[in-house]
Amino acid sequence: MTPAARTRAQDDLDRKHMGRALELAARGSWRVAPNPKVGALVAHGEDVLAEGFHTEHGGPHAEVEALRALREKKLDARGSTLYSTLEPCGAFEGKQTPPCVDAVVEAGFARVVVAQRDPNPQVDGRSLERLERAGISVRVGVLEREARALNGPFNKWMSEQRPYVTAKWAMSLDGKIAARSGDSKWISGEESRRRAHALRGEVDAVLVGVNTVLRDDPLLTRRDAPGRDPARVVVDSVLRIPLESKLVRSANTSPVLVVATESASDERVRALRDQGVGVVKVGSEASRVDPDCLLEALARRGYQHVLVEGGGELLGSFFAHDLVDRVVCFVAPKIVGGDAAPSPARGEGVSEVTRALRLVSLHSEPSGDDVVLSGLVHEW
After folding, report:
1. Which residues pair with 257 in a beta bridge?
2. Which whole number is the average pLDDT over 242-265?
């Protein structure tokens, strides 16, 4: 085999093993937040010796889990390759577990293959340098795009200290999120609604505009889907949310935050706070909540990943300010029709199609009778 052929064969093998490591990482799900999802695999050539992934926040990291699995099989890491979807952590300060890089060095690996560097400024590249100083061959960037997509919220938070924004909506085949009367129950099917509830369980906060509250009186919970209970956020410039709404009446059992402008009356603020609702005033744009200021307020509360569910005015403002990072759209096989029926992204929109936001890494799959489309506006 020629050197070029050997290089290609090794690259194919690295991609194969890293693909499996990414599958393992995805198992971490909501349980690892606010940590990233990480998978690790120990291999000797084609042979996979051990696997591991980060299972929950505060628990052992993926590399440590893989080494534990290796020891249980009474196997030795020396001379083998470690595949990790993220640079092994190297900083102990503020962490609940020791640095993984120490365990990796002590194990005696010949190679370490990493999908992406850790964007945490305390780590970024330092662990890789440590491995190289220990005489370990290091390769970085195998399936990096896929690894970054898996941890978009973590990457953005570490880079900008701002929430990652997923925009979600359900619409008819002709692009309507409701009939002209405002009725939207139910555009999507039962399977799509189940998936939407599961999506809520993966985020820190769910956002809707006050018009959605006035029209649908939602609870915005994850129902019985797996995950954590997100904070429920209502964007309400002048505090029109009814005190008898389901959100307000349930505020003492699950957090509700209403974001208003400075023009909202202090009397309404006190009335909502008396019911256990959090209220914050932020800057405005054209008498409405400025979405940039909104995200800054959510960042101060430590919300790393927020889900914007609508309606069309709120989604439109986020798109207009280029604040959406990921889109999840459920398309139902229905035609609603009508000029007055609302679309998912209202507002002025772009003047030319060439200026439209373009999604990358687009994925589609069936969702009952519907189709769910997902893609990235920004890659972190």
Report:
1. 233, 278
2. 96
Which residues fall within 8 angstroms of residue 295, CB to CB, at 6 or more apart?
A: 162, 163, 165, 306, 323
pLDDT, tens only, 50-92: 999 999 998 999 999 999 999 999 999 999 999 999 999 876 4
Q: Nearest CA to 197 among 222, 172, 164, 215?
A: 222
Give CA–CA dist 194/38, Å, rounded: 26
CA dihedral of residues 200, 344, 358, 30 (deg, nearest 10): 0
Question: Hunting for tokens 């960042």 — which residue is that?
Answer: 299
The residue from 23, 56, 63, 72 that is catalytic is 63
CA distances from 367 to 203, 221, 358, 370, 372 (A): 21, 20, 23, 5, 6
What one-character-per-residue DSSP string does 95-157 give?
Answer: -SS--HHHHHHHHT-SEEEEEE---STTTTTHHHHHHHHTT-EEEE-TTHHHHHHHTHHHHHH
Whether 63 is a known active-site residue: answer yes
pTM score, whole prediction: 0.91
Q: Three-class SS of residue 31?
A: helix
- Range(s) within the chain of domains with CATH label 3.40.140.10: 3-150
| CATH 3.40.430.10 placement within the chain | 157-376
Contact 148, 379 (CB under 8 A): yes
Does domain 157-376 sit in CATH 3.40.630.30? Answer: no
Check the CA dihedral 293-30-58-53 and report its sign.
negative
Distance of CA 293 to CAs 3, 88, 127, Å? 55, 35, 36
Helices (H), 201-280: 210-216, 246-249, 266-274
Architecture of the 3-150 domain: 3-Layer(aba) Sandwich (3.40)
Length of the chain measured in residues: 380
Token reading at 296: 């800054």
Q: How far apart are CA 27 and CA 335, in angstroms?
A: 37
Average pLDDT of every residue of the chain: 94
